[in-house]
Specification:
Blueprint: E1 2-8, H1 12-23, E2 28-31, E3 43-46, E4 49-52, H2 63-72, E5 78-80, E6 88-92, E7 95-98, H3 103-108, H4 114-121, H5 136-143, H6 146-160, H7 170-173, H8 175-184, H9 187-200, E8 211-213, H10 219-228, E9 233-234, E10 237-244, E11 251-257, E12 260-271, H11 278-281, H12 287-294, E13 298-308, E14 320-323, E15 333-335, H13 337-340, E16 350-357, H14 369-382, E17 394-405, H15 411-424, E18 428-430, H16 440-460
Parallel strand pairs: 1-2, 1-12, 2-9, 6-14, 12-18
Antiparallel strand pairs: 3-4, 5-8, 6-7, 10-11, 11-12, 13-16, 13-17, 14-15, 15-16
Helix pairs in contact: 1-10, 1-16, 5-6, 8-9, 12-15
């Protein structure tokens, strides 16, 4: 089969590229090894609960995100988190505390030491850093203090990367934070100036904030699948590998689908798979080069959906609670999806997502389901304060051995290698969460940019 573009992987990046290119008149094919689209995005409906096995939310709706949902109407509708769920809780000394959001809460919070509270006030007057490979922990301690790192940055990174603030590199893992210091000289001053700039920018009218999808996250890839067309999707495609015709430089992709061999020829081939899956997929790239990409470390995660049909008098007016690694707890954090979005549980009930594992506690992901359930029930009582005689009505365990890529010191070499390979092999595009961010919005933004780039090159040709 001849196509303009072949995309390997039917996650959010691949679906975004395919949808936008198809809408611009290019022929596309998506090859996916599993029997469904969406990658880690999957929603379950059971006994009045609507819960996710993968991402529960998108971190920040952008112009690209809103545009995608507009294209998908009426098959899919974005849903923003409730205003009252904007609070973030941090666990310390046996209970959750609200993360400060203003001057008074910043002064009164027990999360930070008195000296660091004073240090935060002086943050706008500190010199900008000069080390491009500075870790997030080092940058945070330098500008805001060690207790801020321990009880703000560390738990935040547990929630986003399930990673280690000591090894994640700021300019790769949190590029916006790095840019604030480098561009404006300070986090606080930069945030104020940036906010003023956004108010003058017409694009700032784009709705912002935490988002999900009405009815569950899986409605997004399902709607994209419908718009792309099942005739352009090849599920259960295994043994896929890419080669290049030496005569006309066209790309050739071979795979097997349900025992039948499939062959594609195209001008552009896009990989959106995990870095670890690239060596057999791109066998024409020497090992010493592809290894600089495939050595990317991934954090393993266990997610546990927990539901109760009656929460009694307990309230959870927050996005969720995060846990610092300093407290040596079994969990990275607990999200409260029912507090953020409508119709995620029975009317008087509650729905939680517990997370455990990450780069610092890989051992916890090796526990049996029984052991994980026991730890979850203990945390349900101790951390969420449910009475001892109250048991969850729903417990579902999901394991993700390669959940979140870690943008550590190897990132610069990985990105440089990708750029060199794409220059060396025109029409090859190495995408996915091995670069450009790990969130849902990042995947949509990357897919949109890639679609624009290929569309422009196609019209030039």
């Amino acid at each position: 089969m001849e196509k303009d573009v072949v995309i390997i992987g039917a996650g959010l990046t691949g679906l975004t590229v395919a949808l936008l290119l198809k809408n611009r008149g290019l022929s596309v094919a998506i090859l996916e090894k599993s029997n469904r689209v969406g990658g880690q995005i999957q929603t379950f409906h059971e006994n009045g609960f609507v819960f996710e096995s993968g991402p529960n939310t998108g971190a920040s709706a952008s112009e690209e995100v809103i545009n995608l949902f507009n294209v998908l109407q009426p098959d899919c509708e974005i849903e923003f988190a409730r205003k009252e769920s904007e609070s973030r809780w941090i666990w310390k000394n046996g209970r959750f505390h609200a993360l400060p959001t203003g001057l008074w809460s910043g002064i009164s919070t027990p999360l930070f030491t008195f000296s660091d509270k004073l240090r935060i006030l002086g943050e706008p007057f500190r010199k900008r850093g000069s080390n491009p490979d500075e870790s997030i922990a080092a940058l945070g301690a330098r500008r805001l203090g060690k207790s801020f790192v321990n009880y703000a940055i560390d738990p935040f990174l547990s929630g986003v990367y399930a990673g280690d603030a000591e090894t994640l590199i700021t300019r790769h893992a949190l590029p916006k934070l790095y840019s604030l210091e480098q561009t404006y000289g300070s986090f606080i001053g930069g945030s104020i100036k940036k906010s003023c700039e956004n108010k003058r920018d017409s694009r700032s009218k784009t709705p912002k904030g935490i988002f999900s999808v009405k009815g569950g996250m899986e409605n997004l890839p399902k709607a994209m699948q419908k718009h792309i067309g099942t005739e352009n999707l090849f599920l259960s495609a295994t043994g896929t590998f890419v080669s290049q015709n030496s005569k006309n430089r066209a790309w050739q992709i071979e795979c097997t689908q349900n025992g039948k061999e499939l062959n594609f020829t195209c001008r552009h081939v896009i990989t959106t798979v995990g870095a670890y899956a690239l060596p057999p997929l791109l066998p024409f790239i020497p090992y010493n080069e592809i290894e600089k990409i495939s050595n990317l470390r991934y954090a393993p995660i266990v997610q546990v959906a927990v539901g109760v049909k009656e929460r009694e008098e307990l309230t959870f007016s927050a996005f969720g609670g995060l846990v610092s690694s300093k407290d040596k707890e079994d969990f990275l954090g607990i999200l409260f999806p029912f507090s953020c979005f409508d119709k995620r549980c029975p009317e008087n009930g509650a729905l939680f997502s517990f997370f455990m594992g990450g780069t610092k506690r890989v051992d916890l992901t090796q526990l049996s389901d029984t052991e994980i359930e026991e730890k979850t029930v203990k945390a349900f009582h101790r951390m969420l304060k449910f009475p001892e005689n109250k048991m969850p009505d729903l417990i579902k365990i999901f394991r993700h051995p390669n959940a979140i890529p870690q943008y550590e010191i190897s990132s610069e070499e990985r990105l440089k290698t990708i750029s060199e390979l794409e220059r060396k092999f025109p029409g090859l595009h190495i995408a996915g969460n091995l670069r450009d961010g790990v969130g849902m919005a990042h995947r949509i933004i990357q897919g949109t940019k890639l679609a624009n780039e290929i569309n422009q090159k196609s019209h030039i040709l």
